[in-house]
Design brief:
With 298 residues, the protein is α/β, with parallel strands linked by helices. It is built from eleven helices and five strands, in the order αααααβββαβααβααα. Strands 3-2-1-4-5 form a five-stranded mixed sheet, sandwiched between helices. The protein is elongated, with a radius of gyration of 28 Å. It starts with a helix and ends in an 8-residue tail after the last helix.
Length: 298
């Protein structure tokens, strides 16, 4: 374009002379120049907005989102941008997802109580809600001492449907989480309940509750954490994204923080790559919209 040529050579020749030689008006050139300035200003404004939205997504996730999840947020908010561009901008802004922690075995299954075969058999791709739950216990350190967290996950949506916390790891801890899940979800007959072989899950009271609710009991093979990989992965995630980034002074502080993370972030907000970057609640709402009549509680 002629005006672009004039602009590119403005330091070599006068604008007046180039306009005369190229037979274009000087006023036309300056009008074009104003338009270019407006375009550049809008582009700069848009780029600034994109950077702000990237920071919003990253910080709302507690610094846990990498470029795939941040990119998915931006697309959800109506922006057209590539993941590669998001990754580049995040690098420029110094935004980096927290690295994964290595898995550590914590379960002690040395007891004389009855155990059950592995009915789940690592079939983690469940097509309906309330067909398979997985359960586990993990540890959280505070300056007052340990807090133990027991969780129950619905494998269909990876949603934490029951959880409890206490200063001791007695059978009442996972039993409270299980009862919460039963009360909220009201599962039908034949749900697979999978756990490790820990004494809490093999206790008479815990087995009684599962039998009363006509659950199919499933347990991991001894010393094999991969049989319960999904709930183990959740515990690694909550430690990486929340617990290891805090210094809890009291047990009450840790309990409040963890409860908020599960309710308000993990279940409702956190995107899962295995769910097509839906959160557990959003994934379940999508299922309900397709298969009306399924009863789920957020």
């Amino acid at each position: 374009m002629i005006y672009s040529f004039i602009y590119a050579h403005r330091d070599e020749h006068t604008v007046v002379m180039m306009c005369k030689v190229l037979k274009v008006s000087k006023s036309g050139y300056y009008k074009w120049l104003d338009c270019q300035a407006n375009i550049d200003s809008e582009k700069e404004k848009y780029n600034k907005e994109i950077r702000q939205k990237i920071q919003k997504s990253y910080h709302e996730s507690g610094g846990t989102y990498g470029s795939p999840r941040v990119h998915d947020d931006l697309v959800e908010w109506g922006y057209t941008i590539s993941q590669k561009t998001v990754a580049r901008i995040m690098k420029e802004l110094g935004l980096r997802a927290i690295p994964e922690e290595k898995y550590v075995v914590t379960t002690d299954s040395n007891h004389d109580m009855p155990v059950f075969p592995n009915e789940l058999n690592r079939d983690f791709k469940i097509q309906e809600p309330n067909r398979a739950w997985v359960a586990d216990i993990t540890y959280v350190w505070t300056l007052e001492g340990w807090v133990y967290l027991s969780t129950v996950m619905d494998l269909f949506s990876r949603k934490i449907v029951g959880w409890s916390m206490d200063s001791t790891m007695k059978k009442e801890l996972p039993l409270k989480a299980l009862n919460m899940a039963i009360q909220i979800r009201k599962p039908g007959k034949g749900l697979i309940h999978h756990s490790d072989r820990g004494s809490q899950y093999c206790s008479n009271k815990y087995i009684e509750v599962m039998n009363t609710n006509e659950m199919k009991i499933s347990m991991s093979r001894k010393g094999n954490p991969y049989d319960n990989a999904c709930i183990e992965s959740f515990h690694a995630t909550i430690k990486k994204e929340l617990i290891y980034r805090r210094r809890y002074r009291t047990r009450a502080e840790a309990i409040k923080s963890i409860d908020h993370y599960i309710r308000s972030f993990y279940n409702d907000r956190r995107k899962h790559s295995t769910l097509g970057y839906y959160s557990p609640n959003k994934f379940e709402r999508k299922y309900v919209s397709v298969y009306e009549g399924t009863t789920l509680v957020s």
